[in-house]
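Researcher: Please translate sequence to structure tokens.
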Amino acid sequence: MQIVVQIALVLAVVTVSLALMRGGSNARHLAIRRIMLILFAFVAGLSIFFPGMLTHIARFFGIGRGTDLVLYGLIVSFLVYMATTYQRFRHMETTMTKLSRRVALDEVNRRQSPAAAARAIAAGTAPSESGSNGTATG
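Model: Translation complete:
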């Protein structure tokens, strides 16, 4: 029975990791997170009021103690947290990159014609701080 629990935990980790790596913050993901949070709170409350029940559940699955079962759950929860944090930072980096590009284009557009600005950005060159005659603009 213990091998079944181990396989189930590994499958849960892989499934949750893939699901969280896949998608953004749409309504479906938010609903799943809220349902999981409510389920976690319910199970946590039951385990606080009835700690013996947690031990019986753990023994049913072939795990020695209820605390070991809680540890396995915390490991899965930590992996979910890591995956969501990675996804959030990746989204934030993408947003920051887009914003930086937009600001660079706006700065160049203020100093030179739009066609020249587009060529400068496409070429990967920094916008010039001087005007067309070599004098500093201000």
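Researcher: Any highlights?
Model: Residues 129-138 have pLDDT under 50 and may be disordered.
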